[in-house]
Design a protein that fits this description.
The chain is built from no helices and 13 strands. The chain has 159 residues and is mainly beta.
Length: 159
């Protein structure tokens, strides 16, 4: 796909916890959105997990860059990029703007299938918490309002 390069999620175990990591690189002036491949089967959607986005604090956009989560219900689940939007196969967006702006900030959210409180959007100095339900797969999408810069965004999930 022109404009975006996604690495597969790499699973490791650290102190008994699952750690998933991947990178998404984009070419400038091509896409407004930058998104991961679907999460691997090692992620247990019935347990809570923590999502860290832009752990390198790269400058990856020119305007506020919120983060959305998409859920997939089939093995062919995937997002594809168009110039200023995404299309989805076998899935749907389950949460928009769970993080307010990863343009230059490192942000984290707890994704908890048992959480029933008020959704908290991750922002500078504020950790987020949200329930996105359970699904076999998820894709994390940095939802730009303008063309993204040439940069690599690092994503980490711990469970």
């Amino acid at each position: 796909m022109a404009g975006i390069t996604q690495t597969a999620w790499v699973a490791t175990t650290v102190n008994g916890h699952l750690v998933l990591q991947c990178d998404v690189s984009q070419a400038a002036t091509e896409l407004y959105d930058s998104f991961t491949l679907k999460t691997p089967k090692e992620l247990d959607p019935t347990k809570s997990w923590i999502l860290f986005v832009n752990t390198t604090a790269a400058t990856i956009g020119t305007t506020a860059l919120p983060v959305d989560i998409w859920a997939g219900y089939d093995d062919d689940f995937a997002l594809a990029g168009t110039v200023n939007d995404v299309t989805v196969t076998s899935g749907y967006e389950v949460a928009g703007s769970i993080m307010d702006d990863v343009y230059t900030d490192k942000l984290a959210s707890r994704i908890d299938p048992g959480y029933s409180g008020t959704r908290v959007q991750a922002a500078a100095d504020v950790g987020g918490i949200i329930n996105v339900g359970t699904a076999p797969y998820y894709v994390i999408n940095c939802d730009g309002g303008a063309e993204l810069e040439t940069e690599t965004c690092h994503f980490v999930i711990t469970q």
